[in-house]
Amino acid sequence: VEQRADVSSLTSRGETGLHLAVQHNHAEVTQLLLQYHPSTMDLADINGNTPLHICAMHGGLDCAVLLLRMGTDTNARNGQGKSAFDLAKIRGTDLSNTHNAELEQILKDAQKGGGCRQS
Question: Which of 5, 51, 84, 94 lies 20 to 30 Å from 67 when distance is taken between CA atoms?
Answer without folding.
Answer: 5
